[in-house]
Design goal:
Structural class: alpha+beta
Largest sheet: 5 strands, antiparallel
Shape: globular
Number of strands: 9
Strand content: 25-35%
Strand order of the largest sheet: 2-3-1-9-8
Order of helices and strands: EHEEEEHHEEEEHH
Length: 192
């Protein structure tokens, strides 16, 4: 189990220091999900910050460290989960392209080659975010069943996401209040 967290300041008003501080705060609420390492990646010009807590299972070396940048530096990924068919995908993509043994890099290479269509090829439980530097876009994805959830919220011009809600609660300016509509649905139907 790993943990991902991040946010995109859509107003692009955050400084490098603010981005780094906030994403570290969000990321470190997930220390129980990843005691083997922590990483952050920030692009102040775009207003994007990605954070990761790591539980090392595959590629136990530092080569599996996240956030991970593509060789072209165009894409950056944070990933939580396991891709069961990553070895087959590595072979399909061309095994000589890889620097690590991690399934994270397989997703990154698959994203470079197939874009969003790579989701059709992934077998496993996953939640991930990919930042596209060239197009200035952020893509979040999770497995079909939501085994590895990805929560998100819009908070005062910031798109915020994480593996757990408590990371979103750690975002500065998040107002904790009861959603009356969701409460009514939950009390009536036992789900919202």
């Amino acid at each position: 189990m790993c943990g991902i967290a991040g946010y995109w300041d859509l107003k692009q008003a955050s400084t490098q220091q603010q981005l780094e501080s906030v994403v570290a705060q969000m990321r470190d609420t997930l220390v129980h999900r990843g005691p083997d390492g922590a990483g952050s990646w920030v692009d102040a010009q775009a207003g994007i910050a990605l954070g990761h807590r790591r539980l090392a299972i595959l590629d136990l070396s530092e080569h599996g460290h996240q956030p991970m940048l593509s060789a072209s530096q165009r894409y950056t990924i944070v990933f939580n989960g396991e891709i069961y068919n990553y070895i087959e995908l590595r072979q399909e993509l061309g095994i000589d392209l890889f620097r690590t043994q991690s399934d994270t890099e397989v997703i990154l290479r698959a994203w470079e080659r197939w874009g969003v269509r790579c989701l059709d090829k992934l077998r496993g439980m996953f939640g991930f975010a990919v930042w596209n530097e060239k197009e200035q876009t952020l893509m979040l994805a999770r497995d079909f069943f939501g085994i590895k959830p990805v929560y998100y919220a819009e908070i005062d011009g910031h798109f915020v996401f994480a593996s757990e809600i408590k990371s979103i609660l750690a975002f500065p300016g998040y107002e904790r209040k009861v959603n009356q509509k969701a409460l009514e649905q939950y009390l009536s139907f036992q789900y919202a």
